[in-house]
Structure formats: structure tokens, C-alpha cells
Amino acid sequence: MKVAVSREENFNAAHRLFNPAWTDEKNDAVFGKCNNPNFHGHNYRLIVTVVGDPDPSTGYVMDLKTLSELINDKVLRQFDHKNLNLDSPHFRRLNPTAENIAVVIWNILRKELDIHLELKIKLYETERNFVEYPAH
Ligand code: NI
């Protein structure tokens, strides 16, 4: 009897999308405004979903207060109000697209959760653009 439970959190961060192997012209053509050399910001909406069997003694898949604290402690503390390119070691060589941010967050949280729980990340970069990892 698998049940999915989710917690939404928000963080604000700056980034710049570019490939250092490319010319300025190619970066501009591919990434457009997101290639702005002086960075730009997003209000990210992060939805973390945990799937598992409700514990017979609590009825919880996972206490969402615990999940919220985990997201705040392990993810938001290092990303919120930061420049992802400059402040985060995760993105020294990894382009901080929503796709890559979602994968990084999944990898951070995966280590913290019970092995029996499935983890899914949904990340909104804008109101209309969002990514999901894993895809299925
Ligand atoms: Ni952007």
C-alpha cells in the first residue's frame, strides 16, 4: 500500500547558464537571457515527494515535519540566497539548470532517507517551467 507524501519548500538563488567550452556567441545563442554574465535570480519552488508504506504504528510514510527539517538543513541552507555558480561546490563544473539542480537535490536527500522510501524531486524554476527527477 504505497502512499506518496510531499513537502513544498521555496528558495531564491542566482545562477548563470553557460558552457565554458563554447564561445560567447554560442552560449548566447543557446542560453539567451540565462547566459547573462552578471547572473540573474529565480524563486525556486521545490516539491519533495517520498513514497512508501505507511508505518503501522504511526500511519505516516514519513513525518513531514522531519522531511521539512531535512530539506531546510541539507538543501536550503546551502542554496537559499546563494549564487549557485559561485557559492556551491556542486556547480563548479556542472551547469546549474533546473535539471541539474533537481538531480543534485535528489542525491543530497537520497543519502538521508530510509532505503525503503522512494524519492522524487519536482523543481519549478518559473511558474510555468518545472522539471522532475527521476523522470518515472
Ligand atoms: Ni535562469
Helix fraction bin: 25-40%
Classify the secondary structure makeup into a structural class: alpha+beta
Unreliable segments (pLDDT under 50, ≥5 consecutive)?
Answer: none
**Tally of separate domains:** 1
| CATH top level assignment | Alpha Beta
Envelope shape: elongated
Number of helices in the DSSP assignment: 4
Rg is: 17 Å
Largest sheet: 5 strands, mixed
Question: Which descriptors apply to this entry?
Answer:
5 strands; elongated; 4 helices; alpha+beta; binds nickel (II) ion; 136 residues; Tetrahydropterin Synthase, Chain A
How does the SSE layout of this entry go?
Elements: E1 3-15, H1 24-31, E2 40-52, H2 64-79, E3 82-83, H3 84-87, H4 98-110, E4 118-124, E5 130-133
Parallel strand pairs: 1-3
Antiparallel strand pairs: 1-2, 2-4, 4-5
The protein binds nickel (II) ion (NI).
Nickel (II) ion is lined by residues 15, 34, 40, 42.
Can you characterise this structure?
Helix content is 30%, strand content 29%. It is α+β, with helices and mostly antiparallel strands and 136 residues long. 21% of the residues are buried. The chain has a five-stranded mixed β-sheet. The site of nickel (II) ion has 4 residues, from strand 2.
